[in-house]
Amino acid sequence: MTGSMGKRGIASMEQQQRVTWRTIKRGRETSYELDDEIAAEFPLTIRLDGEEFATLVCSPDRLTDLVVGFLASEGVIRTMDDIKQLSIDEEGGFAYVDLHRPQSTAKELHSKRWIGSCCGKSRQFYLHSDARTARTIHGGTSITVDRCFELMDRLQSSSAMFQATGGVHNAMLWNEDGTMEVCSDIGRHNALDKLFGYCIRNRIQAKSCVIAFSGRLSSEVVLKAAKIGCPILLSKSAPTDLALRLAEELGLTCVGFIRADSMNVYTHGERIVGL
């Protein structure tokens, strides 16, 4: 039986988001072979104004949204009007981006560590891109307790990739008008960047939206939600202390451990109706 293990096949030709892998399923008393669906892992190199800028390891879907959201998160662009041309070479694994106004410092500042405070407050930023793009959220939408549970239930069930593989993170953008968009990726940050890119490309005002997220509420996740401009962040998982300190400073409502019939509201609970 072991000779047949590891035979790889394409499960979906649409950007090869999933592959099948011949697997031995072993129980306590039984053993059998099956074609297991596995989440695809794809390296995408962004070339910015002709120079290599970054390589993202991601799920090979919604690559344009991912590139736009990533560049916005890094402070390279603010709107689609900053981009002169964007093309994706899926075969080669490259994204080519030309800006109307090339930024000579973009590569130098990308992921460069920098510790400092903002506006004289206690907020600490560790990357230049965070200091440039994270913004304090005032006002914004509110949500009921019941809606929090509903959105977390819908998050996983709305992702076909998660249902098939169990190997991706999911991020949902829910608008107060009832519309929603779900992005999935092997990287939790990528899933949020895809949402960011979706908002930018469709000119969505995120202050009327809620993000439901499958992963841990780390400081990086909170910062991405703040960059998107979304006032409420929901998760089934735990937060970190730095994430909550940042959320408090940035005006972001963080709700974690949303499971079964309980949840923890950590910051800015005024946006949760019926608390």
Description:
There is one protein chain. This protein has three domains: 2-39, no CATH class; 42-133, Ubiquitin-like (UB roll); 143-273, Cytidine Deaminase, domain 2. The chain is 27% helix and 35% strand. The chain is built from eight helices and 17 strands. The protein has helices at residues 63-73, 106-109, 128-133, 145-157, 160-165, 188-201, 219-228, 241-250, and strands spanning 8-10, 18-26, 31-39, 42-48, 51-58, 83-89, 94-99, 113-117, 124-127, 143-144, 169-175, 180-185, 209-213, 232-235, 253-259, 262-267, 272-273. The strands form five sheets. It has a six-stranded mixed sheet, with helices on both faces. Helix 1 (63-73) packs across helix 6, helix 6 packs parallel to helix 7 (219-228) and helix 7 packs parallel to helix 8. 39% of the residues are buried. Mean pLDDT is 84; it is low at 1-15 and 113-123.
Structural class determined from secondary elements: alpha/beta
Major beta sheet summary: 6 strands, mixed
| Number of H/I helices | 8
State the distance separating the first and last CA atoms. 56 Å
Uncertain segments = 1-15, 113-123
Write the CATH fold name of the largest domain. Answer: Cytidine Deaminase, domain 2
Assembly context of the chains: single chain
The CATH C-level class name of the largest domain: Alpha Beta
Number of domains: 3
CATH superfamily of the largest domain: Cytidine Deaminase, domain 2
- The H/E string reads EEEEEHEEHEEHEHHEEHEHEHEEE
Rg from Cα: 20 Å
Beta-strand proportion: 35-45%
The strand order across the widest sheet is 12-11-13-14-15-16
Mean pLDDT: 84
Overall helicity: 25-40%
- What CATH architecture of the largest domain would you give? 3-Layer(aba) Sandwich
Topology, number of strands: 17
Quick one: overall form?
flat
